[in-house]
Amino acid sequence: MDLPVEEWQSHVRRRWLQLQPSVRAAFSTGALQEVILLCSSLLQPEDEAFLQRLAEGYSVEKDPNAYLFYKEEGNKAFQKKAYKAAAMLYSQGTSHARPNTQEMSLCFANRSAAFFYQAQYEICLEDIGRAQMHGYPERLQPKLMLRKAKCLVALGRRQEAALAIRDLEQNVAAREAGTGTPHLQDLQRRLRHLKTRGQEDKGPAEAHPTGPAPASKEVHLKAENERIPGAASSVSLCSDPSRGRHLIATEDILPGELLVKEEAFVSVLNPGETLWQRLGPEAGRDSGAAPGDLRCHRCLKPTMATVPCQGCSYAKYCSRQCMQLAWERYHRTECSLGGTLLTLGVFCHVALRTVLLAGFELVDKLVKTLQGAVNSEAVSVPEGQPPMEKLDAQLGLGKGDQNRGLSGMPIPGCDRDGSYQSSYHAVFHLLPHTERHSPERKFLCGLSVVALCKKLGEAYWPSPLWGQGPSKQEAALTMEQSPRPSTWAVAMLRHVLQLHCNAQGVTALQEAESEGDLVTERRQARLATGFFPVISLLNHSCSPNTSLAFRGSVGTVQASRLIAQGQEILHCYGPHECRMDVATRQQKLRSQYFFDCCCQACRDEEVRRASTTPKRGGFRCPTCKAALQGDDALCCSRGSCTAVASRPHLVGRLQDLQQRVEVALELLRGDKTGDWPKSAAHLRNSLQVVEAQHGPASVEIGHELFKLAQVLFNGFAVTEALNVIEKAEEVLSIHCGPESEQVQELQQMKACLLELPGLPTGPTA
């Protein structure tokens, strides 16, 4: 959740209602530093105690009882041969085990077995190494060594397999000095079988599909912009009072062309609903997976085998390297604050991590610049400046000639050489819209930040988890260089307010449980929240000409249609003309982003509304696609078009199609054997509905084509499947990029079908 938990919000609201009117009024006009000073004076010990009690309810400390629960549940799943579920449960067990203990090593060893039986041999080997690193018991080593040798044989890595077998033989021979046991005899039998298998396999090493699909070829910008690293050379940064900062095409841009590729300056995973069920000492245990259980908390990449933080049960990583980088850059401070950060919400967490990544020296410098600019009132912000300009003109430091607005003034956020890049300097210059937030909202954010900063002061020197902490000399030097807590608080409050209309939700397609179904059900889910300074340059349109997609913490913007030279590059902030009417879109944009949208789609819809009878449900003209007007008898709103239609007839057709779509979805969810002709027929009807609502080149039509491609592939309708795959790949490549999971799966289906030229195609209707 973005904001603090409901209990803290209710507590702060009660405090707000108790304040004198004069104090409340001060929050209406006060600058950031004044809000912080007010909140510092208003924060009471009772508030801190209440926050502490809430944080204890969301504790992320390692719990031995939780370790035992997840280990036992993992064993049960393993015995049922539910190896994927077992691996997930063992992963949750490692999160609660202490490092360098037998408990940790056993969880990694058990997880390696679960991956072995899924033929995930590379991941199995990694877990075997982790188990041994954390002190796997000597008496159990032969079992782990045998599994390692089997993996190497399966992977065709013969030399390594031979060494592993030799080490295992030596280990077994040393044990033969004692009385042979049935277990040892069984081990010797397995070893003889493995040696025989290794000797018989004399052919060339084969490729084995033993892990996640190999990473697709990464897509890069054709030519990077010299002034905007992360953007294509085909765009230029401009600024004017009516549109603020924005990107313009400097040449014709074709659909699918990559315009921006940017790694988040900062990102924080959103805790899932499942997580709240298993946090805190009194919480019930839950074996479901939250988003944070399946993604690296630093790079956001999906991972099947997480590496847990050594100090808390929450943070998890894809590798030890990511874990160490996170620890060095921010997690050594965040680790002991886990419960407090979960209580205060994602926005406070992003704000803290932003400051930690930037470094206190730079934060101190920019905050002082901010305070000096406000005190001197040296630069005024033009009235009516659109909020998605996202910059504070008081802090414009860029000196480059090329990145200047129409007035000739430097564009805020640019460096001294005139370049604009994904840096803390650019993040700091995003507009917080302090004057547009309600006084109560500023009180909630300010009090939360001040309370967090007090906790931060206590936790700034955490006990060392990896053997050694800073020396006295290092500690003294760092304390000298650290800014005052009030400086942290001003910067963090600025970032929390910025996030209200500058936060970028990092999304990913998540699969629903659909084992055995004809199609894989996927839904777009918000995975994390972050700052993307370059992507933030894009202004909003309810009918955008770009699509935004994510791969881990990297965001990519591609042209979704032809963009002519001189046109603005536009992105949709959420309210889209295909999903909401103009009134709903305007209300949402006004409440979250503080502006009235005047994009072409809104202007066109306003004109149509003013010139036609109000609609009871919009329909488009079948001839020219303009809005139909009238009650029961409909006619085209364009005077030059003579098309007519009957509203009852169109409503009946729409209801019939919607019912068919529901039937198709039920068939796809419930049919394990494959009545694919009926499912395909219903999906073709679904395509008509989606195309009418979203258009023939929309991402929604791409997802429907993907489902139809899966059905036809499973039904071996080769000819039609190849045609649909080609269409789906074309649409999804534009919106999601050629490296997306769906496009990769489509390419695999196509390759498989092309290998079967003589297979009967079957009926296509």
UniProtKB/TrEMBL annotation:
Gene3D superfamilies: 6.10.140.2220, SET domain, Tetratricopeptide repeat domain. GO terms for molecular function: histone deacetylase binding; methyltransferase activity; zinc ion binding. It is found in: Cytoplasm; Nucleus. CDD domains: SET_SMYD4. One of its GO terms (cellular component) is nucleus. Keywords: Cytoplasm, Metal-binding, Methyltransferase, Nucleus, S-adenosyl-L-methionine, Transferase, Zinc, Zinc-finger. PROSITE patterns: SET (PS50280), ZF_MYND_1 (PS01360), ZF_MYND_2 (PS50865). Residues 233-574 form the SET domain. Residues 296-335 form the MYND-type domain. Its main location: cytoplasm. Residues 197-219 are annotated as: Disordered. GO terms for biological process: heart development; methylation. It catalyses: L-lysyl-[protein] + S-adenosyl-L-methionine = N(6)-methyl-L-lysyl-[protein] + S-adenosyl-L-homocysteine + H(+). Protein-lysine N-methyltransferase. Monomethylates PRMT5, modulating its transcriptional activity. May also act as a histone methyltransferase. Plays a critical role in cardiac development. Acts as a key epigenetic regulator of gene expression during cardiac development via its dual activities as a methyltransferase and negative regulator of HDAC1. This is Protein-lysine N-methyltransferase SMYD4. It comes from Phascolarctos cinereus (Koala).
